[in-house]
Amino acid sequence: MGEVGLEPQKSFGSRFRPLQGLAKLFHDGLLLSLAILGAVWSLEIHSDLGIVIFKEQFLALIFMIGMTAVFLSVPAQSGDQNARTPWYDLVLAALSIGVSGFVLFHYHVIRDDLGLLSPERSILGTIAVLLVLEATRRIAGWALVVLAVVLILYARFSNYFPGFLNMPATGWDRLSVYMFLDNNALFGFPMTITASIIIAFILFGRMLYVVNGDKVLTEFAMAAMGRYRGGPAKVAVLASSFFGTISGSAVANVLMDGPITIPMMRKSGYQGHVAAAIEAVASTGGQIMPPVMGITAFIMAEFMSVPYGEVVLAALLPAALYYIALFMMVDLEAAKSKLTGLPRIDLPQFRSIVGRAWVFVIPIFVLLWTLMAERWQPGKSAMTAAIVTVFVGLLHPETRPNLRRLIQELLETGRIILDLLVITAAAGLIIGLLQLSGLAFNISLLLTEAAGGSLLFLLLMTGLVCIVLGMGMPSAVIYIVLSVIAAPALIEAGVVKMSAHMFLFYFGMLSMITPPVCLATIAAASVAGTPIWKTGWAGVRLGFTAYLVPFVFVYQPELVFEGSVAAILAVFVKSALGIAILCFGVSGFLFEPLTRVERLFLSAAGAAVLLAPIDSGIGLGIGGIGVAVVGFMVWRLRRQSTGVPA
Q: What is the DSSP string of 177-195?
């Protein structure tokens, strides 16, 4: 579902111990219980039955199961394939049960005196924090751990820091209890969203795999795009955008369809590093592709206190621009290299796909209808769509699920949840520490002062911080941190609230394709066997639009559906035109290879059209000039290609 920041070499098959016998059976039971409990909670069955359960109690139960499963199955050292769980991991699993059980069975007492700083609470809080840090190190590497430790040390010793960092320090007893029990920390909204929403959407995606919905999507993409020039690359773009609706994870998308699309692209004539870059950029776009998007979208809706449907709507046009640009770049790359499409005989027929397409169309319709029209909670909508998926799949022999596949996908859901639980637990600690220490407010104030009243400089600084934080951290955590420390500064500078948060969302996503630590690109390069740096810079070139579009919807919030219908359409058309002109300049091709001067001119004209405000005469003038220039070049190059003097 959401991007969890895993390196490709740490995919599920290699990261987990090869447990056997009763140990494997017990571990699989934990994974199944995570998926099933998440489904039951999302459907609000406990409320229908009149059972009163505090949210924190359910989170503690999920945390207990997840942490126990992590320490039983994920070794302390990467690559350790010893089937036996060592004694120290058994101790860590037992401690996880102990600290979680304290909240699970005593929360009715805890909630009445959350401010009580008793010794047992401080000890249990210290243990809980250490468990989260160790689990995070095993699951996501050192980046998150280092950030959390730095914030813990700052909160404890902030009175020793100079300048704006000098703040009253927090005693360890208060700090440990706050991180453990306060609902703004460990059991805060990141874990709440995972337990009540994300699990349901993961299940929805996995149920689509159970009924072979992934094959339907791939075949549809091949039938729609395979015959055109550069067809395999366009199949990759279309398939990845579809997978984004049910996954939202860049790395997962790459590893799911990359082994199919990358060899096809290479066979059709694309260079290996370009094929891998196309797959990485296309898969990364899945995080912003409605309706499901990624974990960040749900966190964003929670931060802004708006319905998830509003976030989906706001992401629609920017996502369209992202894929329009990628399609154009792929097409121009194919034209430049004189590539052709796949033979029709090798492509699936639409007629054979239509009979199975309902297995994808009906559940997506149910999801959108319950989310947008009925205003259901996202988790309940996703679980309803998941159930509908299974029932629809039963109607056709080729999509009919079997019990073995269903259990396998439930286990896979549990494995994904393990990663998300650990990462959102760490994210909860980070949010709590930023708020408790006052650092969030101070950094926001510092950003505003450093920008000196320049919104553009503030945006550039914020985007750069997103990219730097993205060096090893999941995009969801990047958004969480920046939404606390940077979003207030952007909003204070006059940026529309939705545009401000979407700006952070986008730049957090861009860490997936921006070297040096570009996880989606690393995954694609590993599949293609190509150099990471060469693949990474090709990805930056192909996905260049994503670096500009966030600035467009900050200055022109009509792109996130802020304004009249006419204004929204005008800005979208103008932006699409600017992107088209930019693509000609960046690719260096328009019927024929372009000179450097022509490329530079078209790139500048495209950027001007894209960024110029629609309500200014300058913007309209630049747009008109851009259209005229492109029209003239098309006319001239066509005449040259036919041998007629221009």
A: HHHHH-TTTTTSHHHHHII
Cα gap 280→300, rounded to integer Å: 24
Give the residue among 88, 53, 58 at the shortest CA–CA distance from 72: 88
pLDDT of residue 641: 60
Structure tokens at 264: 């096809």
Query: Identity (one letter) of the amino acid at 336?
Result: K
Classify burial at 221, counting beta carbons within 10 Å of its beta carbon; exposed 0-12, middle 13-18, buried 19 or more.
buried
> What is the pLDDT, as a whole number, of residue 63?
96
- Side chain identity at 408, as an amino acid letter? Q
Helix, coil or strand: residue 592: strand
Low-confidence ranges of the chain (pLDDT < 50): 1-13, 644-646
- In tens, the pLDDT along 126-135 reads 999 999 999 9
List pLDDT tens digits, range 510-535. Answer: 888 888 767 788 888 888 888 888 99
- Tell me how far apart the alpha carbons of residues 156 and 174 are, in angstroms, rounded to a whole number: 10
Q: What is the pLDDT of the chain when averaged over all its residues?
A: 84
Contact present, 574 and 619 (Cβ < 8 Å): yes
Residue with tokens 């328009």: 590
Task: Centre a 10 Å sphere on the Cβ of residue 219 and count the other Cβ atoms it contains.
Answer: 22
Both tokens assigned to 508: 């957090």
Q: Are 207 and 327 in contact (CB under 8 A)?
A: no
Residue 551 CB partners (closer than 8 Å, separation 6+): 456, 459, 611
> Residue 367: what residue type?
L
First to last CA, the chain: 54
Estimate the share of the chain in helix, then strand, then coil, as percent rounded to the nearest 5. 75, 0, 25
Cα 343 from Cα 424, distance rounded (Å): 47
Alpha carbons within 13 angstroms on the beta-carbon side of residue 258 total: 30
The single-letter DSSP state of residue 4 is: -
**Span 31-74, pLDDT tens digits:** 999 999 999 999 988 888 888 889 999 999 999 999 999 999 99
Backbone torsions φ then ψ of 590, nearest 5 degrees: -155, 90
Q: Is the pTM of this model over 0.70?
A: yes
Q: Contact at 8 Å (CB) between 232 and 265?
A: yes
Query: How many helices and strands, by DSSP H and E, does the chain display?
Result: 30, 2
Q: What is the reported pLDDT for 298? A: 80
CA 183, CA 192: separation in Å to the nearest integer?
10
As a whole number of angstroms, the distance between CA 474 and CA 427 comes to: 10
> Would you state the structure tokens that stand for residue 254, as one six-digit string?
């790459």
The answer to whether residues 296 and 424 touch, using CB atoms and an 8 Å cutoff, is: no
Tokens linked to 342: 């796949």
- What is 365-424 written as a DSSP string? HHHHIIIIIS---HHHHHHHHHHHHHHHHTTSTTT---HHHHHHHHHHHHHHHHHHHHHH
| CA separation for the pair 625, 105 (Å, rounded) | 70
**What pLDDT shows up at residue 464?**
83
Amino acid at 556: Q
Report H helices in 269-307. 272-284, 295-304
Q: What is the DSSP letter of 344?
A: G
Measured CA to CA, the distance from residue 479 to residue 528 in angstroms comes to: 30
Model pLDDT, residue 70: 96
Burial class for 162, CB neighbours closer than 10 Å (0-12, 13-18, 19+): exposed
C-beta separation of 140 from 419 below 8 A: yes
